Amino acid sequence: QLQLQESGGGLVQPGGSLRLSCAPSGVTLENSQVGWFRQAPGKEREGVSCISSRTQTTAYEESVKGRFTISRDNAKKTVYLQMDSLKPEDSAVYYCAAVPTTLFRLCSLNRGRYTFWGQGTQVTVSS
Q1: Which residues of the chain have pLDDT under 50?
Q2: How far apart are CA 72 and CA 80, in angstroms?
Q3: What residue ranges in the chain does DSSP mark as E strands?
């Protein structure tokens, strides 16, 4: 059973940066597609970014393109989400999710693709 743990959330001013980490327990994410999702109060959970396992292809939701960067460090068994130029509308609980697969060349921002989820970390962007 893959268990995921997010960290790195917090309170930041508009224009600031945070780096979220997603670390598995006991296993590596090297052969897993990994996605970052977020959910604001009263809103649906939406895909923010993802990275495939086989080709390391990445994808981003339109509103975060150019500001967020997803990456993986296989040696540290961790996937990161670097978030720069943060805006108040980025405030949400951020979740990482994974699916052990190397079948797909492209990753997906569809939450139905993912089978394992972390507990989430709160990101608040406010002055």
Answers
A1: none
A2: 6
A3: 4-7, 10-12, 18-24, 32-39, 46-51, 58-60, 68-73, 78-83, 92-100, 116-117, 121-125
